[in-house]
Every structure is written in structure tokens, then in C-alpha cells.
Amino acid sequence: MTSEERFQQIVDAEEKIEPSDWMPDAYRATLIRQIAQHAHSEIIGMQPEGNWITRTPTLHRKAILMAKVQDEAGHGLYLYSAAETLGVKRDELQELLHQGRHKYSSIFNYPTLSWADIGTIGWLVDGAAITNQVMLTRCSYGPYARAMVRICKEESFHQRQGYELLIRLCQGSPEQKAMAQDALDRWWWPSLMMFGPHDTDSTHTEQSMTWRIKRVSNDDLRQQFVDMTVPQAEYLGLTIPDPELRWNPERGHYDFGEIDWDEFWRVVKGHGPMNRDRVAHKVRAWEEGAWVREAAAVHAAKSHRRQVA
Amino acid sequence: MILAQRLGELISNAPELEIDIAIGNIALDHLGVARALYGHVAKLEGEGRDEDHYAMFRDEREFLNLLLVEQPNGDFAQTVVRQMLFDVYQLQLWEDLSTSKDRVLAGIAGKAMKEAAYHERFSAGWVVRLGDGTEESHTRTQGALDRLWQYTGEMFEGEQAVYQASWERRVKTVITEAGLVVPDDPYQRTGGRQGFHTEHLGHLLTEMQWMQRSHPGLQW
Amino acid sequence: MVSVVLELDRVREAVSAVVDPEIPVMTIADLGILREVVIEDGRVVVVITPTYSGCPAMRQIEDDVRTALCDLGVEDAEVRMVYHPAWGTDRITPEGHRKLASFGIAPPGDETSILCPRCRADRPRMIARFGSTACKALMVCSACGEPFDWFKQL
After folding, report:
1. Which of A274, A292, A307, B102 is found 20 to 30 A from A167 (Cα to Cα)?
2. Which of A242, C130, A175, A53 is nearest to B19 (CA)?
3. Per the CB < 8 Å rule, is A59 touching B137?
């Protein structure tokens, strides 16, 4: 039996691949790309939400939002560490992000324009992320699967908080409810885009399914998300901006309209409303901090020398 | 409260991810303490106010915070120097209040004291690292110290004078370890506790209070 | 009187089962957040204490405690937050330690005695003293490379 066959046997037996196990180069590369993209998304995702930390309407909401953004930074760090088990360094991955050679979730290329956006991100964006991540808790790569288990729990907490924020708005004044509706109008389609292209157009899906990195196809995940979310929108009394959305009793699922794929690809290719700003913000913070990192390294070297002497 | 708001501005802007997380954490602790104190004051006053009243509906002159904490974040050297000067002071204040006869206040202080110890470890650690690091980091940190020193005297006005000697001892130890010089600046700017602020506070409050002020009377 | 005692036991049991929203394998009793359940002037009082001053989960926990009480038909209850004496990790029960470890989080203890929850190797590397939540630090095992959270000693 070749190494490759043995590897596939382990995967097919639903056992986990661990860092020291043999794995095909392409499997390693796929995982690095995917985990890094996930980590980058957590980090870039801090920006749209961080945009509201100084302007929350109440102190309670400020505490929740600060904690949430901090959770995201923590998850990013956790995921970079998971990627490092595959033999890359966090700095290399960040560099790829800064150069625009690595992607992050396109959803963060949309701006947060009102307070309701913060609730909507928790409800829809975290909801979509959880749908995806629940699947990943069964991923064949051990460190990633285990990271997902813990991250999922914390994300569920965020989703609940986001939804609760919207309940408050929807039960509030007409002005507050309009704010919530406007946010849903802007975030609905980008959230559906989070599941990626149609299965027929997805280049990675088939191989990832064989390797059991991915277990459910993009379109199936998207359907799960829609089925879960529509009743929640009804409870809020908000209208999902899709005239074709209706329950299909034969399928036992909601039918929904077609995503604007031109927009999807435009944002993926870097031409969404915020792509440039997000990366520029990240690069600026990194460059402005260069002297701090350098100072820390020099101090560490000096202390080491002093200790030796 | 004011420092939590200032640190909140920094989130997603730190020199590295670990620092971003630490700053978020410290901001959250300050916010938590502020909320607990506001809640306690509200009970003592007994006029049915809540924490948001104190944060969102008071005007600049009604805020009695120290001038030090309303100073802008500046570069990372200014942020950590401001934090260190304040943490050392807070550590003593909370330690003292943790034995207060007011049981609720003592409880809040006891908790805050444990957290302040973590904060001081972070801020003093960075002051030393920056002071002892490169020529650039040394210059920036000394500059931050020289600029912020004028706001430290205010901490020890009135009854709080009892904390000054031990504060100076600890702060000097950190400054010396960092290879920096204790500023020799007799000028001390005060007034925060009388609601007489620097011009920075108004801008901070404008941003913080905007939602409540522009949509009054709603539940969020 | 007997019925009141029985009732109180039932309330205590239900409240003890409320879980932490971020580490749902842990109950608030395991974490030592639940301090006591008593009856004052014929009214149920649930006393809880925050782990960290800024912990945003406290209000959620308060709501969940109320829901648990409502499910028992206890409508008139007070959930009281106390700060004194301050919470510390020594409040986490032995059962809580066991649950943390099985969830993949190294339980609190001396910094030099942290073990990788997967391979039990000692001396992991600390990546960040502050992790995703205030109560955790991020560690990486020096032997198997596994990243994991350590519930910090406080």
C-alpha cells in the first residue's frame, strides 16, 4: 500500500490526521490555504465591528461588542497556531494577506453603516459561519477540527447576542425597526454569498470532499442556512429582500432567488466596496507597529545577553 | 470609563495581534469596573438612574475623571506610558478600597485590584521593553513620559496624597529599569476632578454619546 | 417547612444546571459563578458573582437563571450580583476541572504545571497571555504542536 492509499484509508475510516502523520502535499497546501483564510477572516472581521465600539448606544452593548471583537482576534491567533502545525509561520501568512495574495471572507468587504449592522452581522454572518464551521468540526485534520469545536461554541454565543440586539430594535420604535430592515436589505445577499459559488462552479469542492476536509457542498450549506434563517426573520417581523423566496412543501425547503454572481466575483477579485480599505488598514497598523516589534526583539536579545553574562 | 473608551479606539490597530487582544481585555476590565461603580452609585442615589445615564447623559463639565486618561492614544509608547502611570495608581487605590466599610465597593475594588495587577504587568513590561529597545523606541517612550508627566500630580490631590510616595517608588523603579529618566517638570496641570478638562474630552464624549443623544428615549 | 426545603433543593438543582454561554460544557456551579440560592422573606434569591469585571456573559447567565426559575414556576425571584469576595479560579470545582480538560482546555493551576490536554506533554509555549476571552491564555504544545487554551489562574 502506498502512503497515499494509507492516508486515504485513515480518512475514510473517519480517523483524524495529526501534524506528524504523512499527508499528500496537496492536502497540506489546501489546509494551509483554508485555515489561513479562516484566520485572516477573523482578523479582518475585527474592522467592520470595531468601527462601532466607540459608538455603542449603551455600556452593556459596548462590553458585548468589545468582547466579541476580542474573541475574533483570539480565534485568529488560535487558527494561525493551527496552521503552524502544518509547517508555515504566522508572519508568512500575514505577509501573504498584506500583499493581497491570500483571501479572507468577502463579507467583510461591505461597510457597517448603522448600529443595526452590528446585530445583523451577529445574526447572519455569524450564523452562516457557524453553519460552515459545524461541518468543519468533523474535518479530517485533527487540530483544525478540534479548534472548530471550541470556536463554534463561542460563535453561537455571538449569534445569540446579535439576534437579541435585533429583537430589541424590532420591538422598538418605527425608526429602529427601519434601521434593522435596512441592514437586512444590505447584508442578506452577501451572507448567502459566504457559502461560495454553486457546486458546479466550485473548483475545490470535490477534492476537499474526498479528503473529508469539507463534508457538505456549498449549495447544501446555503440551503441549510436559508431554512434556518427565514423563520427567524419572520419572528423579527422583517422582510427578506428576495421576491422569489417561498416555502416549497415538496422539497421541504425554502426556494430562493439567484445570487448576483457578477457582484460575487467582483468582490472576490478585489473590487468590493471595502476591499482596499480593509487591507490598507491592516497594512498601516502593521507598518506603524514595526518599531514596537523591533524594540521588543532588541530588548529580548539584550536581556538574553545580560542573563548569559 | 474614559480610559476604556480610549482603548476601545485602538482595537484592530495594535502593532501585533497579541497586543490587540491584551488592549481589548484591559479596556473590557476598565469598562466592567466603571459599570459596577455606576450601578452602585445609582443604588446609593436611589433616583432610579442606570449606568447609561452617567456615561451618556452627562456633559463634559460633569465628568470628574483624571486628565491623564482622556489624553489621546498617540503612538504605542504614549498608550503604554499612560497605562502604566495609571495602573500603578489604581493598584494602590483598589487595594485600599478593598477594605472599605462599604461592602459593595470593597467587593468591586477587590476584583479590580486583581485585574489591575495583570494590567500593570502588561504596561510596565512594555515600558521597559520600549525604553530598553531601540534608539527610536527609547526616544519615543521618553517623549511620552515627558509629555504625560504633567498630568500625574492630579492623581494625588486631597485625600489621595497618601498614595503618592509609594506610587513614585514603583513608577521610578519601572522608569529606571527601562533606562529612562524621570521627568523633572514642576508644572502640573490639574482640574479634572472639578470638571475642568483638556480639549480632548469633548470629542471623546461626542462620539461616545452620539447614539443616545441623537435618538433619545429609546431602548437599545 | 419541609416542602419549602424540598422546593429550595429543586430550585438549587435547576439553577446549578445553567451553563456558561461560552463554555457550555461547564455549569455555573462548576465555575463557581453560582454562590448560593437562598430564601429571603419568602422570595428566592440567586446570588452570582462575575468571573471578570467586564465579562459580557453575566447578563446572559442572569437571563438563563431567570428562565430556569420560570420553568419551575418560580416567577418572583431575585438574581443578585455580588462582587465580594472576589471570584478566583479556586472556585472552580474538581468536576469543573475534569470537564474543562475533556473539552480541551487546560484547567487552572500553577503556570509551570500546565499539560497539553491532548498528549499530556508538559512545558507548553505561551502564545498570548490574553486569549479569545479574558479568562483564557493561548498555549501551543511543545511536543505535538496542538494549540489549546489554558484557563488562567486568578
Report:
1. A274
2. C130
3. no
